Amino acid sequence: MLPGVPHGYRDRMADSVRVVWCPALLGYSFGPGHPMSPLRLDVTIALARALGVLQREGVRMVDVEPASEEELLTVHDAGYLAAVRAASSEGRHDLSRGLGTEDDPVFAGMHDAAARIVTGSLAGARAVWAGETAHAVNIAGGMHHAMPGSAAGFCVYNDAAVAIRGLLDDGAERVAYVDVDAHHGDGVERVFWDDPRVLTISVHESGRTLFPGTGHPSDVGGAGAEGTVVNVALPAGTGDAGWLRAVDAVVEPVVRAFGPDVLVSQHGCDAHRRDPLAHLAVSVDGQRHVAERLHVLAHDVSDGRWLALGGGGYDLFDVVPRVWAHLIAIAAHADIDPATPIPDGWQRTVETLSGVPAPTTMTDGADLSYRPWSRGYNPDDDLDRAVRATRQAVFPYHGLDPLND
């Protein structure tokens, strides 16, 4: 049992976690050679199954159908939905709406595939809010760059934003969204920029060195919602010690002060040192540790109501499946020992698909020690300056001391 998770939590529930999965989710595919390969989802589910996680009592696998137009319109505009449908059925490009670009090429069935991801996150959020399950996980979700009127960064519809909107519509008064993808969670931030009911926190590589070039510490939210937008822009090259220090120094105190009814988190694993698109140096172990901490945080501040989403991550066979198998296991209250060997059958499958050796254990063997913020600030350290800029920008809005809390 994780520290902070009460014994007997929600014993009335039949499900400990709902895991969104069906083969149709593999239809979200931009084609051969595109970094966002659906194989990463397939091998993740296969690994979680090989490790016995999906067979655990209380783990329920749920199928999903495409979201309705009414549900999509809670975030996206009607003209954009029409453009996606035209791209999906006719192959029509609309570069003004990000459709047909190198990042977001059009493909047959694009609308249904993207809308199915939305349903996974929205239904998971609603099941958590209704008390039907403790947690929900949608590894296909986390499409955080999609804007109300355009696609961007491999993202067509913004499932996270639709899920949060659904929670608010169903009666949640405060929702916290924590995004630890290497890229700034710009789409979710944009949707809720002026909404004081939604806290968006993004811990990402600085926009000076990585797409989408946004997410500055000085961006704190619109009029009347100041302090509900929180951005930690990390220097390129930040590893476990700095990444964990940043999460400890910003994410936990702000979420606790905000006091959300539900925690939604995005676990893009492109912060890993092997990721081909970003420039951070975080390990599988570091990302597992943050997933554990967010799980505990959900129990501490939101009565356990937690929706966990996937996101970026482009080392398809070594990093993504291990990080997200850990995430599913944590949500199932069935943590995997990092030293656990990976089953031979899964290794053989991955080696056949990739042509390179598969990982053999669930760990990178990383040292996760770091210096807590309470031990002092180093003005000569790039990471510390980035963290301090965020704390100074947003902590006063939450009644927190940027220097000492």
TrEMBL record:
Any single biological process term in GO: acetoin catabolic process
Transmembrane segments: none
UniProt-recorded Gene Ontology molecular function terms: histone deacetylase activity
Listed pathway(s): Ketone degradation; acetoin degradation
Stretch forming the signal peptide: none
Database matches in InterPro entries: AcuC (IPR003085), HDACs (IPR000286), His_deacetylse_dom (IPR023801), His_deacetylse_dom_sf (IPR037138), Ureohydrolase_dom_sf (IPR023696)
Domain of life: Bacteria
Gene3D superfamilies assigned to the protein according to its UniProt record, in alphabetical order: Histone deacetylase domain (3.40.800.20)
The keyword Protease is annotated on this UniProt entry: no
All copies of domain Histone deacetylase, residue ranges: 34-329
Keywords: Acetoin catabolism
Family: Belongs to the histone deacetylase family.
Protein name as annotated: Acetoin utilization protein AcuC
Source species: Cellulomonas aerilata
